[in-house]
Here is the input.
Amino acid sequence: VPLSQLHVVAAQRMLPSMSEALPEGMDESDVIVAWSELLQACQEQAPELLATWNCGVSPLLRLAMAVPKDQWLRSPREKWCEDSSPAEEVDIHEAEEGPTTGLEALPKLEKLLRHLLARFDDAPMGLACGFTWSDGAGGVLRERPGREVVLCSPSGVQLCVRFIRLFAAVGAGEKPAVAARELLTPGLTKKMVGQLMTDAGSLPPPPPVQLPSSSRFIQPVSVTLESPLATLRRAQLAALGGPSELVAAVARTRLGKDLGTEEEEEFAESVLSWACRFSEEPELSEPEPAAASMEWLLAQRQTDPAFSIVVSGNPRAPKKVLAAARRDAATLELQRLQTSGQRFLTNPAGVKGFVKKGVMAAFGSWEESGSLGGRQSQLAQLLNKMGLNDEEAGLFGTRESAGFVEPPNSWRGDEYEPSYEEEEFIRDPKVMRKATVKVEEILSFEYLQYVGDTMKNCLRVERRGGQSLMKYMSRVKSRDSSFWVMTITAEADEEEEGEAPVQHLLLMEVYNGMKVIHQAEGPHPRRWPRLDAWAWLQEWAEQEGLAADGPEGV
Here is the structure.
């Protein structure tokens, strides 16, 4: 089968990340066999489907991965393309390739999908966007200018697979409500599923994905609005009596990016219902504040399983919710980064995060605090008395000289070096606040870069030409490692004004297969974990059965 090298490499990138989504009893070799049969059928009846990734090769690979051959209603070797006009001959190795090429081949792709998966003509083609949609967040393969494939992230592909299987189940004659509850989420009502099945038109085209201009490029929200998940959220909003315009706000939240667990989706429905009820209130009249309000409700539930939208028998007022969202703007921005840009799959070891509320934690650092004299300032005074100016004193490691800061206990080797200044600081009542400690998995390249910038470590493209970053990225993409971040967030009262501060304390690497915490690094320049952060890391390790000590541990 003639396939360009560009498409072969793209398929090689896609296959490993899909192993978890394969049906039971099916492995990658079964996928290759099924995909080969589809490619051969297209070579004979619609060769233009072999010329482009988004409108041909990729949908065929998704079909082979999502629906086993024994569930196809008909054979692809049968006649399914009645178009007798000869296809325009295309050089698959030299043809233009990009996010919007190949749209003219979509009618033939639709014929093949209907032939294989639809028993009747009224198939809900809106669900078939799972074949063609991409979040554009999986990186770029570039053979040359004009021949580029923008990949879908593994999490985006897995989302599409669920909708492809729903399309196949409904096309085979299963009851839509039963299939949707099994394949999407159990809480869907018949009315919601009915709304989801209303679109029996044509196969949706790929979304308006743009060629990334940098490694940190974020696709526009218009891409999210054309996803299969956005189709589901529209159906839910319609069933709940909300305006269709609300989907623009939903797309800006985690509800527009991921389909959660049964419990998460149950609470998500209550958030959507709340938004529908108050959709005419000024706080929810525009997408951005409406998205911030919904994201705040979702974030509170993630931190506190007992959190409810209803307080004393009444739903929370939109005005108070938006005010709380603005106080927690820093936390909500981190959540946005988690679902932006190139995205990673969660760790295969099933390691979960950690939340501890109501702790007293020190915000800031002793290097930044002007209240600590300690041994450093005493040394500086002594050196000044000896006739050394600030610049010369800086060479001896004093913290008084800007530009020559060398903390007394910087990370020089494998043996922990205590910092008396830091120990004084984390016990200082003047810098302590009631806070929530969180350990969260880093699930996007954008957030990984943000953490690198914030903590000033080697996870920045600018450091060492990006070599360290690429090394870590390869371990994340292969899922050998997962990266985690520990933060403290000040717990603000409802009447308190101003933004609640968030501070990053640790960046951690976990070896997934061994369940070992391999690295735990604090902010530059000291880098050793604070004593309180180390204690919280130990609590998380015990909760998740992780080893923090040993040959491969920290």
The mean pLDDT is 86.
